[in-house]
Amino acid sequence: MNGARIALFPGSFDPVTNGHLDVIQRAVRLFDEVIVGVGHNQTKAPIFTVEERLAQLREACARLPSVRVAAFSGLLTEAVRGFGAVAVVRGLRAVSDFEYEFQMALMNRELEPQCETIFLMPRAEYSFLSSTMIREIARLGGDISPFVPEAVARALVERLRVP
Ligand code: ADP
Fold first, then answer.
1. For residues 28 and 47, what is the distance between their CA atoms, to the nearest angstrom?
2. Does domain 6-160 fall into CATH 3.40.50.720?
3. Digit-coded pLDDT (tens) for 11-42
4. Cβ of 108 less than 6 Å from ligand 1
5. 56 CB less than 6 Å from ligand 1?
6. Hey, where are the domains in the chain?
7. What is the pTM of this model?
């Protein structure tokens, strides 16, 4: 699309939660195209591979035609340039997110003056939701089905099943 306003929503998405999907739906209303970028460079061992996360996101966003799901690695500012994005979208859940996000947004602007970061707040009921929390609850055998897409809930239970 020529002159399309593209946003990049980067993250680990290990796994994607309803909070992420809430942010994606909000971003879709603001931009012509939203690229959900699954970051490669994770220090901790992830539960799902990048390919699995891409597939989960693609399924969860199947009804949103302006969403593209892609992997990226390296510097976020490089990815922004590579995708031709005009903005980075990040979710802001609570004050606790602010410090880190603020630092990252300003550093990215230092590295690339054109890099604008837009923060979107999810519905209040998702403001306590994080992938870390979901992994923890799933590991302890709790019901995570209200917080993630159905296919993700099934895959998590399967992945964490003790042989
Ligand atoms: P990262 O490891 O880069 O923080 P995450 O996958 O944890 O990646 O999150 C990606 C983005 O989604 C971040 O901007 C994060 O703040 C946002 N996010 C995560 N969970 C929620 C939620 N429940 N509501 C709104 N935004 C969220």
1. 28
2. no
3. 999 999 999 999 999 999 999 999 999 998 76
4. no
5. no
6. 6-160
7. 0.95
